[in-house]
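sanity check this fold:
=====
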Amino acid sequence: EEIGYLKVFITIISVIAPALAGIFIESWGFPMLFFISTILIVLSVIPVLATPEKWTSGTVSSFRILQMFKAPKLRKDLVGMLATGEDSIASTVWPIYIYLIIPSYRDLGILTALTIFLGLVIFLWIGKLANLGNRGFLIKRMTGFLTFSWLFRMFAFTPLTILASDTIYKLSANSLSIPLTTLVYLRPKRQQLIEYTAFWMGSLALGKALAYLDEAVATTRYSW
């Protein structure tokens, strides 16, 4: 439920950002957008550095983390984490495709803001369901919706179908991340949490790398 609240807060900001970005690009161009974004990024470091941290000293075995990648009991975890590499395609190739259909930065920003807004309320609901112990059920259902959203995108050739497919994707992807993230933090023993988190982050990075490699191969073939 706390993860759901966190995503709602982030989503509220995410609803405003694309629309403002589109307006900035249309009115003042990319340089002004980059300048303002740089200032915001620098300012965002201040609360991070000002937040007190609670920590205890200990040791983490890099060899143990590497062993986790080939451990049979973690094979399902690895496959599931690698699959999240599809987010790389959604955040790079898909926006380019949308721009080919909607060549206006302002309209593109407003469309993106609208799809994010449509998924705002459901995060709280999914968070509460994950708290009730329905995580396995939620993961199976949201995985089905996520798969459907990618199949639907094959037929998205108009602004309306793009809006529908992108809304389904954002709803299912963000809803899926809530029970998945909860399970990741609850799955390992407390003394293994750091190692498992490192394994999780490494798997995510590997999944994204494989997705980018696939994009590069597909682009090379298309150009030839």
